[in-house]
Amino acid sequence: MIVDILLDALKDSVILIPFLFLTYLLLEAVEAHVSEKMASTVGTSHWFDPILGAVLGVVPECGFSAAASSLFSGGALTIGTLVAVFLATSDEMLPIFISENAPAPFIVKILCVKVAIAAVVGLLLNVLFAKRNRAARQAAEARIEELCENSHCACTEHTGIIKPALIHTGEIVGFVLAVNLVLNTVVALGGSAVLEKMAIADPVLACVVTALIGLVPNCAVSVAITELYLSGVLSAGAMLSGLLSGCGVGMLVLFRTNRHLKENLTILAITYIAGVLGGLFAGLLF
């Protein structure tokens, strides 16, 4: 059992390496070449980025949510785009549906609903947080420097962009590995049994609970929620609540890389509430 726990944690962590490394390379390049002209123009041409974020997020790979968190921490993404990626992310949902021979029209409908909800919420957030987004983008260079200082990666010592990107990537992967080891151990010791008892008759309560469980930063959660739906324990709406709020390790990376705790808690609350309301809305469509 110990070997399985370790292997699962390694798999969930190592798969993030290419996404994180490319993300930090981009951030280092931005820090090296950002100009005042660029800073003065951002914040006005990125209003509709949540649509792209929602489409990318729906790809069955939590690396996108981790990358989005790092980009947000560096001031390169708006709150709306980050939340859109979070809401669209489903980790292992699509592979599980395909392996269980779920009807193709149903799968497409689920994906479309997730993308639509993610995009709408993201666009609304960009309107509500327009001032904050503009300020963050104008201070992008400072936020990236703050990210580097927190990681002690020697970004300011003229070592190029590859070494700092490698240090950032190694730090985050190590952090995610440690958390995954703990979560996988809890699941192996019977934590999944709690999910199996969630045959809740009240649809509202079901969405509230599954959205909360979806926040757990581990792909095993998306597998469990999808399997519970396929086995008839959860409704489609309750399943979507958990899958909307479930953003893989994205939230974990956000809290590790972004030192603005109030901002992180706001994003966490928005993601959870959107998951609950999105699941209740989706329940009317299925």
Write the layout of secondary structure elements.
Layout lengths: L1 H13 L2 H17 L2 H6 L7 H9 L5 H11 L5 H10 L4 H7 L4 H25 L1 H9 L1 H12 L10 H35 L6 H12 L4 H12 L5 H10 L4 H8 L3 H23 L3
Helix pairs in contact: 1-11, 2-5, 2-10, 2-11, 4-6, 4-8, 5-6, 5-15, 6-8, 6-16, 11-13, 12-14, 12-16, 13-14, 14-16
Salient structural properties:
286 residues; 77% helix; mainly alpha
3D architecture notes:
This protein is mainly alpha-helical and 286 residues long. Helix content is 77%, strand content 0%. The chain contains 16 helices and no strands. α2 (17-33) crosses α11, α5 (63-73) packs antiparallel against α6 (79-88) and α5 (63-73) packs parallel to α15 (250-257).
State the secondary-structure class: mainly alpha
Low-confidence stretches: 34-45
How can the largest sheet be summarized?
none
Work out the radius of gyration: 19 Å
Q: Which range does the strand content fall in?
A: under 5%
Oligomeric assembly: single chain
The string of secondary-structure elements, in order, is HHHHHHHHHHHHHHHH
Basic shape: globular
Number of helices: 16
End-to-end C-alpha gap: 38 Å
Number of strands: 0
Helix content: over 70%
> Whole-number average pLDDT?
77
